[in-house]
Specification:
Elements (H helix, E strand, L loop, with lengths): L2 H18 L6 H15 L11 H9 L3 H29 L5 H22 L1 H15 L2 H11 L13 H24 L6 H14 L11 H13 L4 H29 L4 H6 L1
Helix pairs in contact: 1-2, 1-4, 1-8, 2-3, 2-11, 3-4, 4-5, 4-8, 4-9, 6-7, 8-9, 8-11, 9-10, 10-11
Length: 274
């Protein structure tokens, strides 16, 4: 029951970005594309499979690949920014218990925010991209890549427009971790809801490290380390919470995306040519 509103809210947040960039696609169509991307995401390290939204968006909108890459990247980045913000707040609240983690999170949050702030400005971003293409890309790929990069800043969304999607992303994270917490209650674990709400995101972000498929194993080990250190719980109990939560929030959603991928087709030849 919490999965459905979470998915709808996340798609609505993405719709705000799509409309700001002048990408015309209905709510239902973008929802389908989002779910298909989610399916590919849970079977790839770092959830990079979410970028598979791009060819489906191309099929439905006809917009340039560079622009579609940016709108997908912005949605994913806003989502990352929102969970990093939650982690920073959580680490600050529980500073006495996880002091070392707090400073690591603070440094990472500053670096992440600085990079995003730098590339938001077209003049700065294009300068770095041009240098990258000039010195690191083989000559035979330069023309195609320059054409791709030239559409990056087409109708780039205004910063103030992105505030609401970030806030909506925080709401979706709260819904997701509330689903996890249901298993905490079911197992009778003495972990306060607020503490879980702000500490489990640390484990979730650890799963973004592109080592295993969908962070499987990395997320669970991190969750075990955090909660067994702070609370009187066992490794097995936290493992159950992490795995069942992953199944409910990710596998089930991804399965819907899999079913949609069987019916929603994309012109693979045109995608490969691009």
């Amino acid at each position: 029951m919490l999965t459905i509103p979470g998915v709808i809210i996340r798609n609505y947040a993405w719709q705000i970005v799509l409309k700001e960039q002048g990408i015309q696609i209905s709510f239902l169509q973008s929802l389908k594309v989002f779910l298909i991307g989610y399916f590919y995401g849970i079977f790839t390290p770092g959830f990079y499979g979410q970028l598979m939204r791009i060819p489906y968006l191309k099929e439905k909108t006809g917009q340039p690949y560079g622009k579609l890459f940016v709108t997908t990247f912005i949605e994913i980045t806003m989502r990352s920014f929102s969970i990093y913000l939650m982690i920073l707040i959580g680490a600050l609240i529980f500073l006495s218990s996880i002091k070392e983690i707090f400073y690591v999170i603070l440094v990472w949050f500053i670096i992440f925010s600085s990079v995003i702030f730098y590339f938001i400005k077209k003049e700065r971003g294009e300068k770095i991209f041009n240098l990258f293409v000039k010195y690191f890309i083989p000559k035979r790929f330069k023309v195609s890549l320059n054409s791709f990069l030239s559409t990056f800043y087409n109708d780039f969304p205004r910063i103030r427009i992105l505030i609401l999607p970030v806030l909506l992303s925080i709401i979706t994270w709260i819904l997701i971790f509330t689903q996890y917490y249901i298993f905490v209650i079911a197992l009778g674990l003495q972990i306060p809801y607020i503490a879980f709400l702000f500490l489990f995101p640390i484990a979730n972000v650890a799963g973004y490290i592109p080592i295993t498929i969908a962070g499987l194993g990395i997320r669970e080990i991190t969750a075990i380390t955090i909660f067994t250190t702070i609370y009187n719980v066992t490794k097995e109990e936290i493992l159950v919470v992490a795995l069942l939560g992953f199944i409910i929030t990710d596998i089930v959603t991804g399965f819907v995306g899999f079913l949609l991928s069987l019916t929603e087709t994309v012109d693979k030849k045109s995608f490969l040519k691009a």
